[in-house]
């Protein structure tokens, strides 16, 4: 008989397997140059698949409330927290897909936001689980893990500020950029809940409660505050991706909107004309000579 936590893990495996397939499809459909958000979702899906697989194994191998801090549980705790990094990066990449409302300064800010996110990822992986809690099912976070989760919180504040600034320039956006901004704005409330859950787990020792512990805490709280929130956020992002034009459609738009008079004055166009003239001047005499020689051979 599969326990309650095991059922949640099985459903999560099914959902993120589907999300992984959709993100791979979107990456192939839109090209690697425009697929940073979908690649990050692929990483998130793989992270969640590994986490839930380990958690399912630990749930079935050990009775509840008595599981020791095995490598299974340590991996579950680390993967649960570090999954926020690709989720942040995918959100930042979506905001970077806007052009006119974003501006160059905001573009650099969103790119530089990846630096503290990577630092927080390193801190969480290096921090792991408090060694003093290895003989109990509490699995307390280390100081490094707490610093990494706190850095997530700071990054989220910057992300919200960037979203507000870009959304305030909505009058500059086209229909595609409006869909992107709307999707990101809709995802932020669910993002807040996910961040709050991770903060409660990291700093649960301050409150003396284990309800938010990703290993021994309430499965229902984790389901409602973390698992379902990520279902919704990733579902919104992938739904947006399916509405965006493919790589072939973008190329068609570029060709239609190209000003050929302006193109003719560019350096590359002039270089193309010179190269074409040189090729024609070299190849045509050779073709004429080959035609003359073939005629002579046939007549002989």
Automatic annotation (TrEMBL):
The chain crosses the membrane at residues 6-28, 35-54, 74-96, 108-129, 149-172, 184-207, 219-242. This is DUF7702 domain-containing protein. Keywords: Membrane, Transmembrane, Transmembrane helix. Residues 4-244 form the DUF7702 domain. The lineage of its organism: Eukaryota, Fungi, Dikarya, Ascomycota, Pezizomycotina. It comes from Polyplosphaeria fusca. InterPro entries: DUF7702. The keyword Transmembrane applies. Coiled coil: none annotated. The keyword Transmembrane applies. It comes from the Eukaryota.
